[in-house]
Amino acid sequence: MGCMLRSDPMTFCDMFLQPEAAFEVIGHLGEMGCVQFVDMTPEVKPFQRNYVTELCRYAELERKLVYMEGEMSKDRISVVEYNSMKPKPLPLNELATLENILEKWENDVLEMSEHQTTLLKNYLELTEMNYVLNQIGPLMGEAEMTEEAIFGRSAGGDTGLLGRLFVLTGVVKRSRSFPFEMMMWRVSHGNIYYKRATQDAILQDPRSGQDIRKVAFMAVCQGEQLYTRLEKVCSGFHVNLYTCPESHDARMDMMLQLSVRIDDLEKVMKKTKYYRCKALRTVSKQWDSWMVQIKKSKAIYHTMNMFTLDITRRCLIGQCWVPELDFPKVEDVLARATEEAGSTVESFILKSDDSDEPPTYHRTNKFTKGFQALINAYGDSTYRELNPGLYTIITFPFLFAVMFGDICHGTILLVFAAWMISVEKQHMDKTSKNEIWNIFFGGRYIILMMGLFTMYTGFLYNVFFSKSIMPMKSYWMNTYDKETVEKNHYIELNPVFETNPPYIFGVDPVWALAKNKIMYLNSLKMKMSIIIGIVHMMFGLSLSLFNHIYFKRYYAIILEFIPQILFLTCLFFWLVTLIYMKWFMFSGKYTEVKRGAGCAPLILILFIDMVLMSTSKPVEDECDAYMFEGQESFQRLLVFIAVINVPILLFGSPVYLNHIYKKKKEEALKKISQFRRYQRRDSDKHTEEKILKDIAKYSTPFGELMIHQAVHTIEFVLSTVSHTASYLRLWALSLAHEQLSEMLWVMVFAKLGLRETSYYGGPKIFIIFAIWASFNLSILVVMEGLSAFLHTLRLHWVEFMSKFYTGSGYPFKPFSFKAIFSGDGKDDQSEAMCKKKVVTY
Questions:
Q1: Is the pLDDT of residue 684 over 60?
Q2: CATH of the domain at 233
């Protein structure tokens, strides 16, 4: 948990690797995943890097594997996954063997694919021709396709047509058949005989393998010029034309020949597909391990390209960030990898100084990872800043449960989370393509905690699917006789009369039967949400004190923290105090009139009068306007203290920082002048850059400091009101969730199912229960749960974290094989410098 409080201390290091051991060393570091390398030569283009040749060789092998994966997916051959990262990177001396293997397999698969495509193309042509003959032939019957057969003879024995008769037969896509027919009619001006087949044909595209629907047609026209124009229309619509024999016998002979050829072609295609699938299945057994090896090796050479090659020292020099806790492990890896590589010169790592801001790294486990992800979605912590993720483990599920309090709904969440935790070993190393499942599985421990806290608040609210139970004796006691109770539909229970001891835990179950239940819960939950919200904001503001102390911003404690905490305390914490005073000082049990429930002042009116510096009026003539003597003067003093702190917040930090910056700028200018006068070595450039950065930092004008502080001051003062009002969503969603649950019980389950007294009541109640349960699960658990989750997230990001969290850091992204294969990291950069082989069919 110590690492969750603040980010891990980071160390900037210089790493010196021997070229012959660099591959092994970086491979081991990739397995560990604790070193973030810095590009030493960002200005160098990718094709000018040291290891671009080796990188392109691995990229070519990856291309071949991706191509074969695509071929396997076409034939629905699944890759055998080993669900492990055990295959080691492939060294350069073993690369030639794999290159030869993959070259052979690629050529074989490519040749079989081309052959299969050719066969499919021939098969498509023969199938289409056979389809045309089968559909167009019956249109002609036993007649021949001549002028007399088609149009018949006129009464005078003449057709009345001049010119040669042309016949076009073929197939067109079904989706384009109607536009094609219209175009044929328009081009021919209606001088055409067009007939379409009654049945479509579903054929397979030889290139894509997808099914296409086509329909056969026959078009008869007169004249060569019209025939040429119709051919162009067919070409424009990508219509396949086939010659149809004129005589019936010739068509029958051609159909017989086509059937024989199609049967022979199907046998050849079946055999070809068998050998192709056999080859691809052989590749699929080793595809996963090959891809792991290639991706690891390629990532290693990408990392080696970040190093600079010192030719004189014959070593690779790089820079990196390493967590201090992992620094000894990195040293051991360097020493062990050097021995394994057989290098005579040892590789080593040295700590260095760097003026840049270190990356932020929070060491998490499977329980805390989900909570930390909620914080990182808002922004990564500034280096060594207090991490809200630690407190979110408790505050997030608690605020969620305040809005979602129901024992049974919490039990559903708990069971769902427990099931995901029970099967986590099966899914930890797998990355599902279902994003919804990945989100739920990643937050399984968040759901677990939300379920537990929801059950707790459900006990406090005494809500079981909108129903209440009575685990102990109620505070209220019936003091009426039997006759009075029977005559009156409602009876009044007054705390002035005899009562039982106070109900210790949660809401008294008698309130579930009360007519003024909504008024009671409304008042209780509204005040509760204000108390929780102000305490939550004050806790967040208190955490800023520890940040100021850690970063040695002692001026901010006096000029920012103390005025802020005084402003919040004098106004809004006093509001919380008034709520508790009203609860304890006024009751129906008191015999004194001024301490009775009827004389309890209105907290909202008191607070408004306090801010407006006006005198409050009593609720009744015989009541007091204030809860104690001198309250009006005390409240005016609180308002005065709160108002006085606003100018301190506005002008304190800018004036102080402007004074300090002037002194430090003068000191930095003296340093740079002395440095440039006496230092001439290239190794001192880093020191010079550091001094120049300090000068730029301390050159901030007073106006900019003033504007920055004014924005923060206005935001803080206004946010104390808006953020307090924002916590009222705890009240609103809690009340809405309970009332919606009660409505579903009364209107669906009780009214339609439980009130049935006939013989059909038994089966009917099962059906009504299923409907009611589905509504509970889909609306109250899923939809209301997501709504409460988002509102809780908002309360943490805006109302809580804004008090102490800047979130201006950048994450620690180590070189890690696990991150590359899980999709959290990039396995490579742009490989445009590699000439890729284009696969054609």
A1: no
A2: 3.30.70.2750
